[in-house]
Automatic annotation (TrEMBL), chains A, B:
Belongs to the UPF0284 family. Residues 88-107, 325-347 are annotated as: Disordered. The lineage of its organism: Archaea, Methanobacteriati, Methanobacteriota, Stenosarchaea group, Halobacteria. GO terms for molecular function: glycosyltransferase activity. InterPro entries: Nict_dMeBzImd_PRibTrfase, Nict_dMeBzImd_PRibTrfase_arc, Nict_dMeBzImd_PRibTrfase_sf. Gene3D superfamilies: 3.40.50.10210. Keywords: Glycosyltransferase, Transferase. This is UPF0284 protein ACFSAS_02105.
């Protein structure tokens, strides 16, 4: 069992009001690098930011890390166009940071990264992989990609903001098609074209990985929301028919009314997991129950794994422990520095 | 517990007769990338070679991987100047492939990589790390570095070849000093100078990591032979006095008569572990008992961990399972493709 986090950036996120992670430019560009470190080490290592939204909602990476500490799965971070260094080990498939999709040709590395990721996905030795993403602004590019493919079962994508800025996203997607040679629906069966013209590099890598893994007989769990749904659409348009699972959170599912229908249309089994963050004792995690963040960094996939292992009830406490560590809320910082959780069983 | 593998290259390895891995240029340049993949995935993924010496001795990476499957430790691969792509996730600290030390200024990235690795080592959250290396030709550059520092307790370094080509190594080291501004002993207390003038990028990164980890209170196990001894010397010359452990194999210890004395001079506790590869049932691993390879890819450190966990007796069988997988010796290749060992406990 391996969880693969695809971490990268698109300048589309810099558009004012698009992303919860985009509250400051620093947070925006460093969040994927920080998320990767949190999954790899249980804390930030090189990244100079702690990804907590302005309203205090912590990055979903702390949840995925908590599940990793509970279950001990392998992790591979794939560089989907990181804009800042990360201390997490990463695999390169040639992706570079994506441009603003309102500009012409924003993701020139997408076709190459899709092909290289697909080859890498085929070579992975695992029986089962969970693919997750971290890319601020990614729901907007995912919406554009679904339109480019002509996949209209999903009217719009979710948002990390409690109030989905749908009008703004519509305008951005419209501008993306205006500046591109591709019209809505005209990139059907041409995933690389859709990704390069109106997508982002994380989506290119996630879709390539999923396609390659499925082609080699690996069970694939897409751990995430509407961005992973877009990845699944890309996999189908690349001619890969094998069933996969979309594993997401109850918060995301509550936000997307057409989720079940969209998943079924893409031949995906849907697994929705509720971590019960509105219960007593969830502390800052109650922000999730208020509709902030909702998903990301493989959270839905990790929760699914925790549920399968019968450890779902332990996630809140484990996540709060990770969160205390990441935000430095411990009583004793010096002790904290050398008391992180392990993920293996060989302690 | 984290094992850190520093993987990279030096063109010094291309000198005829220097390295067991250097039997063919392909094997030479791809071995570190393949070793990293074997540790990360239990098999090669992107690397086009299987690192087995011409006489049939498998890379020590299969031993370290076998211990990983037994114990489940975390792994971080740091790029110490890889010359070919690897499918293993890697952390970059700016190291590039090293040049032939007979040429002037062969390792220009060494000072920067040493500093960045030291900072990274300081930031690592672990209580304890094992640092290992994979770099064909590395014992020759290690010998030159020890001379540059004026560390003469060790007359010469070990070799992956059963007959250590000492005359050849002496000539190479002599030529290195001839083409450099640094004379033997003149780089004392200047580790970056020694590394850049006559070293290799892997040694720069391994020494930097160890120095930084020790400075932040992390327990450091140097898992390897005379190259890790050179790394320890660099750490001391960088002004870091904290005790560390050198954990190596009985095969390496048998080859280096002054090992105990050299380790003591550098304030290192010495741990020598015998995996008993000359016993019945060791198959191709008996090559180790014949003095081939001896050490590498963190093998001595991994064996130490296995011994501490009471699992040393399980290493031979686990290693043979990894080896069958890596060399494709199974009866059923199709089944093999999706039946690798996991390393976590969350299966």
């Amino acid at each position: 069992m391996r969880v693969i986090l695809v971490a990268g950036t698109t300048r589309t996120a810099e558009i004012d009001g698009i992303s919860a992670a985009g509250a400051s430019r620093d947070l925006l560009v460093h969040t994927p690098s920080a998320d990767a470190e949190i999954l790899a080490y249980g804390d930030t290592v090189r990244a100079p930011v702690t990804p907590v939204s302005p309203t205090g909602c912590p990055t979903p990476a702390v949840v995925t890390r908590a599940v990793r500490e509970l279950l001990g799965f392998d992790l591979t971070v794939v560089d989907g166009g990181l804009a800042r260094p990360t201390g997490a080990p990463t695999v390169s498939v040639g992706a570079r940071p994506g441009g603003d999709i309102r500009e012409p040709d924003p993701v020139q590395t997408a076709p190459g990264a899709f092909v290289a990721a697909r080859r890498f996905g085929r070579a992975l030795p695992d029986d089962r992989v969970v693919v997750g993403e971290t890319v601020p602004g990614g729901t907007t590019t995912a919406m554009a990609v679904l339109r480019a493919l002509g996949e209209d079962a999903l009217g719009s994508t979710s948002s990390s903001l409690p109030e989905n800025p749908l009008d703004l996203k519509e305008r951005v997607v419209e501008a993306a098609f205006e500046s591109s040679d591709v019209a809505p629906g005209r990139a059907a069966h041409a995933p690389e074209t859709a990704l390069r013209a109106v997508g982002d590099p994380v989506l290119a890598v996630a879709a390539g990985l999923a396609a390659g893994a499925l082609e080699s007989g690996t069970e694939v769990v897409l751990g995430g929301g509407t961005q992973l749904l877009a990845a699944a659409a890309l996999v189908r348009h690349a001619g890969v028919p094998d069933r996969a699972t979309l594993a997401t959170t109850s918060y995301l599912a509550a936000d997307v009314s057409e989720l079940e229908e969209a998943a079924a249309a893409l031949e995906l089994d849907l697994a929705v997991t509720d971590p019960d963050f509105d219960a007593d004792g969830a502390g800052p995690l109650t922000a999730y129950a208020d509709g902030v963040a909702k998903e990301g960094a493989g959270m839905g996939g990790a929760l699914r794994l925790a549920d399968e292992a019968g450890r779902l009830g332990a996630v809140t406490e484990a996540t709060r422990a990770v969160l205390d560590r990441v935000t430095g809320d411990d009583a004793d910082d010096a002790a904290r520095d050398k008391s992180r959780g392990d993920t293996g069983d060989g302690r």
